[in-house]
Amino acid sequence: MFSTFLAAASLLPLLGSSQQLIQDPGTAGPELELVHLYYDQWPTGVAVSSTGRKFSNYPGALDGNNTNNGSNGKYTIAELTGNSTETPFPNVEWNSPPGGAINYTTTPPTGANYQNHFIGAQSIVIDSLERAWVLDTGRVQDPNGTIVEATVGGPKLVGINLTNNTVFQTIVFPANVAPGDSYLNDVRFDLRPNITASGKGVAYITDSSIEGRTGLVVVDLGTGESWRHLQGSEFVAPATQFLAYVWGLPIYAFQAGQPLSFQGFGADGIALSADGEDLYFGGVGKRYLYSIPTARLRDNGQFSEALAQASVVSRGQKGVSDGYETDTNGYIYHGNAEQNAISFYNPVNGTSSLFLRDPRLNWVDTMSTGTDGYLYFTNNQLAFSPLVWPGTDRRRRPFALFRAKLPNNGTKPLLC
Ligand SMILES: *[C@@H]1O[C@H](CO)[C@@H](O)[C@H](O)[C@H]1NC(C)=O
Ligand SMILES: *[C@@H]1O[C@H](CO)[C@@H](O)[C@H](O)[C@H]1NC(C)=O
Ligand SMILES: *[C@@H]1O[C@H](CO)[C@@H](O)[C@H](O)[C@H]1NC(C)=O
Ligand SMILES: *[C@@H]1O[C@H](CO)[C@@H](O)[C@H](O)[C@H]1NC(C)=O
Ligand SMILES: *[C@@H]1O[C@H](CO)[C@@H](O)[C@H](O)[C@H]1NC(C)=O
Ligand SMILES: *[C@@H]1O[C@H](CO)[C@@H](O)[C@H](O)[C@H]1NC(C)=O
Ligand SMILES: *[C@@H]1O[C@H](CO)[C@@H](O)[C@H](O)[C@H]1NC(C)=O
Ligand SMILES: *[C@@H]1O[C@H](CO)[C@@H](O)[C@H](O)[C@H]1NC(C)=O
Ligand SMILES: *[C@@H]1O[C@H](CO)[C@@H](O)[C@H](O)[C@H]1NC(C)=O
Ligand SMILES: *[C@@H]1O[C@H](CO)[C@@H](O)[C@H](O)[C@H]1NC(C)=O
């Protein structure tokens, strides 16, 4: 051992300082343009309208400092009104549940049950008719770090008319669709009239339930009915003993008062194929990408669950991702957190390819395809947050919203 070391050491002078080894270039793909800097609350999602309006959500369940306590002025949905300023959307009232987002009269405390106020929004998405939809989990962290369970009224889908910033529809999920330990994470819309009898289109939602009740939720936007599919299946569950790395640091899971655990987020990322016929989904605590024909999800008949489970397609491994997004090329964009990258899956050749890389990227949380031909995405340092071992906050403001030009003049696919 010692002599081997000496032999190796004696080679050192032979290696001139001019010797160049190749190294990771660190960057690839189209230029990243900075669109917005977040100095205030911690964002996850982003949505961009055809007129260039931009919106984000700030979930209280994943950052207790986003939780409205009745007097701290915290918001869970905002419009990005300047390059680094945000305004509660659609107004302060919707973001200010009276007495706060937590109901302390129950034991243990629970998410408040207001149907006309947001509790803890995990997503905002703009559909093909330019309407904004807010997905509320009904759950937030209390001041000691416990994520309280939702109560009926909290978990809901709220449609907002962007012409006059007014709520036009509220779909409250019943307890069998969004039980207290559900976590409705992200949503996509298909407004084609012919896919339902009611003719108003469908929303597809991932449930990434922290406690493991993962699944997909389907909503008929005409009747307001909703139902679950794939619950308890391996496709929506995280992998066991999952470990990812970001900037060299291991990503475990940390919750106040509980032992260190593995990061276990199930079904989270979601995207429709450009033609609306397939839904792509996958867990954050897992490297696989799945799809299912949307017809199987819309079916809620006697054999629909068996048929749904039998029709899931595994598209293979794609790296570690949070949100997904689609463009008119038919590509399914997904973050690639361990590579400081965004990649895309091409259903035509069944493989994932690199879209862009940048050393500033740490956690591409959510993406939104603009009608302007850009992919917008938040980069929010989630991997450095107190959710992750060792439970200390290594995030540094500002958090960022970037955009990059889509390939081949790709743009937002419209399903209406
Ligand atoms: C909220 O922010 C303050 C100040 O940065 C920090 O000390 C505190 O730990 C944060 N609380 C939560 C629940 O993250
Ligand atoms: C809410 O938060 C504010 C600001 O942190 C604090 O001053 C106030 O006491 C809190 N209110 C309650 C009811 O916890
Ligand atoms: C935002 O940034 C853009 C590009 O740097 C700049 O042109 C614009 O004036 C800025 N707007 C505000 C309100 O600061
Ligand atoms: C957090 O506080 C609530 C009361 O607000 C209590 O019910 C719960 O047990 C506490 N949890 C921990 C981990 O301290
Ligand atoms: C709080 O819980 C009580 C008991 O379940 C219920 O009657 C009340 O409506 C709840 N209030 C809110 C705002 O959630
Ligand atoms: C949105 O509001 C505008 C202005 O009142 C109205 O013309 C439009 O029809 C509304 N759109 C929807 C989808 O309700
Ligand atoms: C917004 O538009 C909708 C649909 O036209 C209408 O019902 C509603 O009253 C309008 N709200 C405001 C505040 O103008
Ligand atoms: C709905 O119409 C589109 C064409 O607009 C067609 O491609 C699709 O197959 C139809 N879907 C159903 C479920 O009939
Ligand atoms: C799959 O298709 C994409 C888009 O055309 C392309 O960039 C990629 O190189 C293809 N993958 C392979 C392995 O050929
Ligand atoms: C993109 O659109 C521009 C303007 O219409 C056109 O000149 C260009 O050829 C298109 N590029 C591709 C790759 O389709």
Question: What is the structure about, briefly put?
Answer:
This protein is mostly beta strands and 416 residues long. It has helices spanning 2-11, 294-298, 304-310, and strands at residues 33-38, 46-48, 54-57, 77-80, 86-88, 102-103, 110-111, 121-126, 131-136, 156-161, 166-172, 184-190, 202-207, 215-220, 226-229, 244-246, 249-253, 261-262, 267-272, 278-283, 288-293, 313-317, 324-326, 332-336, 341-346, 351-357, 364-369, 374-379, 399-405.
Provide the helix percentage: under 10%
**Any idea of the CATH topology?**
Neuraminidase
Radius of gyration: 22 Å
Distinct ligand kinds: 2-acetamido-2-deoxy-beta-D-glucopyranose
Terminal residue distance: 70 Å
Overall average pLDDT: 95
Account of the 3D structure:
Residues 1-8 have low confidence and may be disordered. Helix content is 5%, strand content 35%. The chain has helices at 2-11, 294-298, 304-310; strands at residues 33-38, 46-48, 54-57, 77-80, 86-88, 102-103, 110-111, 121-126, 131-136, 156-161, 166-172, 184-190, 202-207, 215-220, 226-229, 244-246, 249-253, 261-262, 267-272, 278-283, 288-293, 313-317, 324-326, 332-336, 341-346, 351-357, 364-369, 374-379, 399-405. It has 416 residues and is mainly beta. It has one domain: 6 Propeller (Neuraminidase). The longest helix has 10 residues, at 2-11. Bound molecules: 2-acetamido-2-deoxy-beta-D-glucopyranose (10 copies). The site of one 2-acetamido-2-deoxy-beta-D-glucopyranose has 5 residues, from loops. Belongs to the major royal jelly protein family. Pfam families: MRJP.
